[in-house]
Automatic annotation (TrEMBL), chains A, D:
Membrane topology: Multi-pass membrane protein
Lineage: Bacteria, Bacillati, Bacillota, Bacilli, Lactobacillales
Protein name per its UniProtKB record: Ribose ABC transport system, permease protein
Signal sequence, start to end: none
GO (cellular component) term, any one: plasma membrane
Gene from which the chain derives: rbsC
Automatic annotation (TrEMBL), chain C:
PROSITE patterns per record: ABC_TRANSPORTER_1, ABC_TRANSPORTER_2
Lineage, broadest ranks: Bacteria, Bacillati, Bacillota, Bacilli, Lactobacillales
Annotated keywords: ATP-binding, Cell membrane, Membrane, Nucleotide-binding, Repeat, Sugar transport, Translocase, Transport
Chief localisation class: membrane
Subcellular compartments: Cell membrane
Protein name, entry field: Ribose ABC transport system, ATP-binding protein
Keyword hit for Endoplasmic reticulum: no
Domain of life according to the entry: Bacteria
Organism encoding this protein: Paucilactobacillus wasatchensis
Membrane topology type: Peripheral membrane protein
PANTHER family membership: CARBOHYDRATE TRANSPORT ATP-BINDING PROTEIN MG119-RELATED, D-ALLOSE IMPORT ATP-BINDING PROTEIN ALSA-RELATED
């Protein structure tokens, strides 16, 4: 009848949501490295982090959105549209850094547009972002005329290429970017009032309103962050491929959502940690990289990926249990 | 310095290898299209016949995914990478990365616009589009109204084939509408149905792949509208035989795959491989089949 | 600080809820606001604190026309509001809840966790509430959640404190503590608006009473100048006899029997029996485990060992579906969470447990269903525009009646009612007791879990007192006194 | 002071959710038929209904799922997998009707699998069906080896072709199937206890459980229906194309969800009508058909589609307003 008694019942779900994502990652890493020794090569690990970074960035933004019990399906399209914008501007002679800056601001604006529709239009995030996903993608096609945007201005510019292809002390530059935004997202979510309000909004919107939280402003801000981070991903991808693809980022929303959920965040909102999302993104990265290393046929890769996601979330079921 | 965008240290000397020791890594743009499934078959068959190991990845039409796969192939130290790029520009950094690691790259069906490739095995999509235009014009006569079913917006094959076709029909045929059916058979059917409503007087259809043509054929049924497409999948060729489709500019995916593997062997025999390896395309007509 | 509400009016759609209400409050006074369910008390307070817009009238703060923009604005002007329906974040910790949107920050906008924890602890200590500040609020009982709400409102420099049914989930001990605090605050010059349906509290704590009826303020009295009868008359518009109708029980056979029911760490060796025609009350302190016992019997929670018998036959109940098949009904204590589908209509709420009874081959007989709902709404006096209204649009008390209607209608032979009259006005309470009488006359067995000791003593046949998950003792109501029950409830023994 | 006062404030949202989907459909129909007179051809209308039928069937199932506040992303994969199964069996010599029957039973089983994972695994429907979408799709590729399944047994069988290509009294046979399942779904949702329990579950799962609803059984049943109806769509598509495509149904989940939401059903569960979903499916059908007729470029089609969906749901915002 006292408070220590709760600890008696060992709860697998609780265990997973505390330590689980990390444990799942470790198990996966151990398994893959036993099966293929080259997995733990420094080179491969660098590849891995590099491969993870864009999804991780999008997932950081998605985490805020999901914590409010929302969802953003348009991140992949925002990535493509902002990337195409930046590439277009570089071709028109703008210095790459400035173009990147404008590109991410564009991404933030697209995100804010989503947020405004959700906050003021009072429509479900799923359907709003499903619609804007289509709109932004169409706009990307119109802008690029369906062709990849590329040119010597991009191929020959060092400052352009550094973002997605550069190395600093032997580590891909984009990995630093991922880490920097992780730290910012972590602080924002766990150490500021903004983060508290995000949890509150997702936990009980009405109560948040009663507590005087400006829920509309908060929603807009959160989708702005999601758009911004997708656009950062878009810049990295554009630089990495030395071209802006009109269909870049297709399906990325699903990987980002999977990363967030694998990290123990509840789709019902109000529960989850930023660290979990980083781990979730790594799980997906290790899975993709590992399956390639193990030479699993691409048909079976889809099956394996689905089963791993399923297993992880079932262990994490505690979430919806109360 | 600490910061770099990578520099080339590619070796020019080739250590010779027997065919059975050549480990082949493959990244295909997609495996949900029969054409590329057949490229894969061609690769597999040829490799099997020579006893070499193959590992194939499906990039699911995502350039960035393809990049990751090539990184992973480099990690696995395969002896040659056969890549069927999702996009000829976006593949360049990956090709350069392989160059740095000293792994030869063979481009298949689409080229790479940068980096060094041993050879590009390709059937020319622009040319295929032109051939299709030529055939359609022969069938329906000058200035007849025709429609075009486009592939997935932005996809390389869609862009190239469309480019060839559109250029060749200028002043020759009257293209009344272009609609995308995503390279998909079901979508080809419904889109064709809708086009027929809006333009009941068309005389011919160009579908950018066989799948859409097969769907379109279902919509057209026995109306006198000529259908031409590009690819040459088994389903497509069967339809030409039965007269549902009037002509296909057939590429030979299996041959393409085979040629790519052959080029790899040639490279490891220390022989010179020419910059391009043409995979033949040819027109298959229903009038010939009958 | 002095606040005057003048001629306030407010309509929700066609429903004129407030039609010119006057109300005032001064420093150092406890002003009770009384009225039937749906009279408009909560609405008036929501308007005062800026949570709702209003259609007409004036709010004067210290004589100056004022309108608060939102709750935060009101709070910053010294007006705090403890809501009737709890507005908390179940997943967030106690301290996070207490400081939500009022966080203490260090430099760079970073949160000062240590300071917030300290202040939260201090506020809870003041109430004598031993609640760990790090646990999620949702894991605490309703009573403890209510204590947190109260503690939260005490953290600020409050000049006007609004309490909307603060004691609905509290038991005697906590209420006593709360009243101590109210008296202290009063001395410090705080003005308190106190809303409650518990008549005895009003006379214990208030200085003035205002009674509302049908959206107007009927009368304001000095508490010492009035009596229960007068207030009840103003509230319901007529005289009412006794609060509690007489019980003339005719006990039948044993209906539900529980033997050695145990759920590790929650309750242990629970034995009791309820006969048809009996009202068995369950009393106990907050968190004693009464709710948990009932949930286990009804198949919502699992238990470790023990047996349940219905009419002498052992039954295995693994879900509410089973329980209902065994003719057991259960009115849960948390009506918002488990009792109602807030967005659904009253009709859809009321017939849910009985819906299979109105179906042939799965197809619903609409006419029979409608008659059933209409009958129940009338019988329980649910105050609503129509059966198609959403449950969410009703006042708290009326929502309670809807949940009750749902279970009364289910035709249960055993009805477990967990806090059946929580938040219900005197008039409606009387109706509920009458209804319970009628049900027991027809042979229904009723288990009434209640934190209202008055009610337990006033309307039951036997009383089981739970202490720390055990039944400490069972006494016949006619022999019971407040002292005896409290002795058992605090772990003592009655010497025979 | 009396009831007529409500009528003063005209509530656009309320208007839409009552009459709106139908009004939106009418506006769209009028617009398209003015722009292109062949739209109202009997022929075209038959095409339209035919094109709508598969999406409508999936949407009917999706409606039940969404009413429980769930979602099913795996419908497209179920469609493909059950279609491939049936085709495979026909090639192996099974009579088409029997193969179709087995195909839809398979679909129902896949759906039940989803439902069981959600009900017993207590994981969020979004992530469960995201994972099974990947698993079922992978299984389809493995089964078909990435190639369409086809053969003379399919091309020459009348009973095989009738389902998706046949006409009865001048109306495509699959339209009858759509209508039959609409009537069944309508009755099930609005006239039976099953439907009432579905609404209750979506409105407040805990309250439904306490009121004696067997929520687990109900969830499994609902996902089974969704899987079943997707498989029916799969049979139609297989018959229509005389082949089973490994990538059939890709993206169909989004169209089905859009149809349900356009029809006025709330993604939060508990609110919505079957008629709305039928109308929603027609809106999407008219949109696709109309844009083809009007010859809108495929780039702009995506933008237009997004904007139409957005407009419709914003008018319908009333739903989430209280
Ligand atoms: N959001 C709302 N929408 C529509 N009607 C409402 C709303 N909130 C309250 N009402 C109606 O206003 C009336 C007054 O409700 P209120 O909650 O103020 O009553 P109350 O006096 O606090 O009752 P109780 O003692 O039951 O808490 C009721 O008839 C209720 O149905
Ligand atoms: N959702 C919950 N999660 C964890 N513990 C809980 C939960 N609800 C109640 N408890 C704990 O279970 C014990 C019994 O609480 P319960 O609600 O059954 O008491 P009760 O006698 O019905 O009292 P009351 O309902 O008046 O609070 C208490 O220690 C309480 O803190
Ligand atoms: Mg109230
Ligand atoms: Mg209780």
């Amino acid at each position: 009848m006292n408070n220590t008694e709760t600890k008696k019942k060992f709860n697998m779900g609780e265990f997973y949501s505390k330590l689980g994502p990390l444990a799942a990652l470790l198990i996966l890493v151990i398994f893959v490295s036993i099966m293929n020794s080259s997995f733990l090569n420094v080179n491969n690990l660098m590849n891995l982090f590099q491969q993870v970074s864009v999804n991780a960035l999008i997932a950081f933004g998605m985490q805020f959105v999901i914590l409010t019990a929302g969802i953003d399906l348009s991140v992949g399209s925002i990535l493509a549209l902002s990337g195409a914008f930046a590439a277009q501007m570089i071709l028109m002679g703008m210095p790459p850094l400035l173009a990147f800056l404008i590109g991410v601001v564009m991404g933030a604006i697209f995100g804010a547009f989503n947020g405004a529709l959700i906050a003021y239009g009072k429509a479900a995030p799923f359907i709003v972002t499903l619609a804007t996903m289509s709109v932004f993608r169409g706009a990307t096609y119109v802008l690029t005329n369906g062709n990849p945007i590329t040119g010597p201005k991009m191929n020959n510019s060092l400052s352009f290429q550094f973002l997605g292809q550069g190395y600093l002390f032997g580590i891909p530059f984009q990995v630093y970017i991922m880490i920097i935004f992780y730290v910012i997202a972590y602080l924002l979510l766990h150490k500021t009032t903004f983060g508290r309000k995000t949890y509150a909004l997702g936990g009980n919107e009405k109560a948040a309103f009663v507590a005087g939280v400006n829920t509309k402003k908060l929603i807009i801000l959160i989708y702005t962050i999601a758009g911004f981070l997708s656009a950062v991903g878009g810049m990295i991808l554009t630089s990495q491929l030395a071209s802006a693809q009109p269909d870049a980022g297709t399906g990325y929303e699903m990987d980002a959502i999977a990363a967030v959920v694998l990290g123990g965040t509840s789709l019902a909102g109000g529960k989850g940690k930023m660290f979990g999302t980083l781990v979730g993104a790594l799980i997906i990265g290790v899975l993709n990289n590992g399956m390639n290393l193990l030479g699993i046929s691409s048909f079976y890769q889809q099956i394996v990926k689905g089963i791993v996601i399923l297993t992880a979330v079932l262990l994490d079921r505690k979430q919806s249990q109360n | 310095g600490a910061a770099s965008v990578g520099n080339n240290k590619s070796s020019s000397k080739v250590t010779k290898k027997a065919a059975k020791n050549v480990k082949i890594g493959v990244s295909l743009s997609t495996l949900s299209n029969p054409f590329f499934v057949n490229v894969k078959k061609g690769i597999d068959n040829e490799a099997k016949a020579n006893g070499s190991k193959v590992e194939t990845f499906d990039a699911q039409n995502d350039s960035s995914k393809q990049n990751n796969q090539i990184s992973d192939l480099i990690t696995k130290k395969v002896d040659v990478i056969i890549v069927n790029p999702v996009d000829s520009d976006a593949i360049v950094p990956s090709v350069k990365k392989a160059n740095q690691a000293g792994i030869p790259v063979i481009a298949c069906d689409r080229g790479s616009n940068g980096g060094k490739v041993v050879t590009t095995v390709a059937s020319d999509n622009v040319k295929a589009g032109k051939m299709a235009a030529q055939f359609l014009a022969d069938q329906v006569g000058s200035n007849a109204k025709v429609a075009e079913l486009e592939g997935t917006p932005g996809a390389d094959a869609a862009v190239q084939r469309g480019k060839g076709f559109d250029a060749a029909i200028k002043g020759n045929l009257d293209l009344v509408t272009k609609q995308s059916a995503n390279f998909d058979r079901a979508k080809g059917l419904s889109t064709m149905q809708n086009i027929l409503q809006a333009h009941s007087d068309i005389k011919g259809v160009f579908a950018q792949n066989d799948e859409m043509a097969l769907g379109a054929a279902k919509a057209i049924k026995n109306q006198d509208i000529k259908i031409v497409s590009i690819d040459g999948t088994p389903d497509g060729l069967a339809a030409v035989k039965s007269g549902q489709i009037d002509g296909i500019v057939a590429q030979q995916p299996k041959t393409e795959g085979k040629l790519a593997v052959k080029a790899a062997y040639k490279y490891y025999q220390g022989k010179k491989v020419s910059k391009t390896t043409a995979s033949p395309i040819h027109l298959v007509k229903s009038s010939d089949a009958k | 600080m002095q606040i005057e509400l003048k001629n306030i009016s407010k309509a929700f759609g066609p429903n004129k809820v407030l039609r010119g209400v006057d109300f005032s409050i001064q420093s150092g006074e406890v002003h009770a606001l009384m009225g039937e369910n749906g009279a408009g008390k909560s609405t008036l307070m929501n308007i005062l604190t800026g949570l709702l817009d209003f259609d007409g009238g004036n709010i004067l703060v210290d004589g100056k026309e004022t309108r608060f923009n939102n709750a935060l604005d009101a709070e910053q002007h010294g007006v705090a509001f403890i809501h009737q329906e709890m507005n908390n974040f179940a997943e967030m910790s106690v301290v996070e809840n207490m400081f939500l949107n009022r966080e203490i920050k260090k430099s760079f906008g970073m949160l000062d966790m240590a300071e917030m924890r300290k202040q939260a602890k201090a506020a809870l200590d003041r109430l004598g509430a031993d609640i760990p500040v790090g646990v999620p609020v949702g894991s605490l009982s309703v009573g403890r959640q209510q204590m947190i709400e109260i503690a939260k409102s005490l953290m600020n420099k409050t000049q006007v404190l609004i309490m909307d049914e603060p004691t609905a989930a509290l038991t005697e001990n906590e209420i006593a503590k709360l009243f101590d605090i109210i008296r202290t605050l009063k001395k410090q010059g705080v003005a308190i608006i106190y809303i409650s349906h518990r008549m005895e509290e009003i006379f214990q704590i208030s200085d003035r009473v205002t009674v509302m009826r049908d959206g107007v303020s009927v009368n304001t009295y000095k508490t010492e100048d009035t009596d229960v009868k007068q207030i009840v008359h103003d509230m319901v518009g007529r005289d009412m006899g006794d609060f509690y109708p007489d019980r003339n029980p005719k006990f039948g056979e044993s209906y539900l029997k529980v033997e050695n029911l145990t759920s590790d760490g929650v309750f242990k060796d629970v034995n009791f029996e309820v006969r048809s025609g009996e009202v068995l009350a369950f009393s106990g302190l907050m968190g004693a485990g009464r709710t948990e016992i009932m949930r286990a019997i009804f198949g919502i929670d699992k238990f470790n060992s023990g047996k349940i018998f219905i009419k002498g036959k052992e039954v295995h109940i693994s879900s509410p579906e089973h329980a209902i098949q065994h003719n057991i009904g259960f009115l849960t204590e948390d009506r918002k969470d488990e009792g109602l589908i807030l967005d659904a209509s009253l009709a859809d709420n009321i017939d849910l447990p009985s819906i299979d009874g109105f179906a042939k081959h799965g197809f619903i007989d609409k006419k029979a269903d409608k008659d059933f709902v209409d009958m129940l709404m009338k019988r329980l006096g649910v105050k609503a525009q129509s059966a198609k209204d959403a449950a969410a649009s009703l006042s708290g008390g009326n929502q309670q009646k809807v949940v009750l209607a749902k279970w009364v209608g289910s035709g249960s032979q055993v009805l477990i009612l967990d806090e059946p009259t929580r938040g219900v006005d005197v008039g409606a309470k009387r109706e509920i007791y009458d209804l319970m009488n009628e049900l027991t006359d027809r042979g229904t067995a009723i288990i009434m879990v209640s934190s209202d000791l008055d009610e337990v003593l006033g309307f039951s046949d036997n009383i089981a007192v739970v202490y720390e998950g055990k039944i400490q003792g069972e006494i016949a109501t006619k022999d019971a006194t407040q002292d005896k029950v409290m002795t058992l409830a605090t772990g003592g023994k009655l010497d025979e």
